[in-house]
Description:
3 helices, two-stranded antiparallel ribbon, alpha+beta, 7-stranded mixed sheet, Jelly Rolls
Amino acid sequence: MRSGWTLALWLLFVSASALPASAELFTADVHTTVTVYDTHYWSGIEVEDGGSVTYTVRLLSGDLVNVHLMDDARVAPFLSGSVVPTVNSEEDTSSSSYTHSSAGRYALMIDNGYGESVCKVDIVVRSPDSSWVVWVFVALVIVVIAAVAVVVVMQRRRPAARPQDQPGGPQQYPAQPAQYPAQPPAGPPSAPAQPAQCRYCDFLMPAGTQICPRCGGFN
């Protein structure tokens, strides 16, 4: 009887060990409840440069679980029993949450050592954040509006230009000297005065002389 129980337990162990891991290919964000027998995992989780992956595993009932985030290429060695490096691991836990922000292809592994666990699983992959582009655009718009406002204020504070200073206003010319009508040319020069003869003594007096230098007579 004892040997029969031993054989039954051995067969149960062998059959449990032969159960393949339950695998899913990640194609979109996951929000689901799964029952884990031994191992359940999602592969093909793509993270782009500047993006991130966030997972949350919460035990609803059953055995505690081990949660591993690893490189997708390490899934096969891990399932074969090899010890592989992981991005993040938590052992014998009822709740696990983690965010990873490096580009790559990953897999999320949940195992419980041939137990049975009901888990709520959320896996979210975020694309590169482009919000900084929006903020840069908004900042540029603000700078342009501020520059236009400054120009408008400066234009309003500037004193009004005189009409002659405005384009299209009456043109100003430099003052010209006054013009006078031309004077007629003067006549021929008069002949020089001739010496006069004294009427008293017939002496030739110098031109313009009225008193004779000889006799003293007044001419």
